[in-house]
Automatic annotation (TrEMBL):
Source organism per UniProt: Saccharopolyspora erythraea (strain ATCC 11635 / DSM 40517 / JCM 4748 / NBRC 13426 / NCIMB 8594 / NRRL 2338)
Pfam families noted in UniProt: STAS
Descriptive protein name: Uncharacterized protein
GO molecular function: anti-sigma factor antagonist activity
InterPro entries: STAS_dom, STAS_dom_sf
CDD domains per record: STAS_anti-anti-sigma_factors (cd07043)
Length: 150
């Protein structure tokens, strides 16, 4: 069942919000925000660094979304300054699981660090990637399985 939530759902990791918080996540400036303005397509906006210390927080937000009735999830990585191995593994696993559940998962890859990391991991062709959120949304709303333009 698709759960109706506010238009945006911020995930605040600041110490005051989470009973002591997660200083490593907060210090690195990881910010996650969900946008449900066009259900059943959601957008997860990510900014900051995705390394071994911050990727678990992304996983905490991402995996529950893949258990819903979303048709598509766009992960906006435009504001990501570093995409580490753990994050790449998470994105590949999430894509595989989403496909198994019939959910289209795609990324935006307009930032240079994201493009370089995806290319280094040979994932640029395995994960549907788009230049911006509007292109990704358009692709997932007009096609069953979007194919990223290359």
């Amino acid at each position: 069942m698709l759960v109706r939530t506010p238009v945006t759902e911020p995930f605040d990791d600041s110490p005051g919000r989470r009973g002591g918080g997660r200083p490593a996540v907060h210090e690195r400036g990881l910010r996650l925000r969900m946008d449900f303005t066009e259900p059943p397509v959601a957008v997860l906006f990510v900014s900051g660094e995705l390394d071994a210390a911050t990727t678990p927080r992304l996983a905490e937000v991402l995996w529950p979304r893949l258990l819903t009735e979303l048709r598509a999830l766009v992960i906006d990585l435009d504001e990501v300054g570093f995409l580490g191995v753990d994050a790449l593994r998470l994105l590949a696993s999430a894509h595989s699981y989403a496909s198994h559940r019939g959910i289209t998962l795609c990324l935006t890859d307009s930032s240079r660090p994201v493009r370089r990391a995806l290319a280094a991991a040979a994932l640029q062709d395995a994960l549907p990637c788009f230049g911006d959120v509007d292109a990704a949304r358009a692709a997932v709303t007009t096609a069953e399985r979007p194919v990223a333009p290359r």
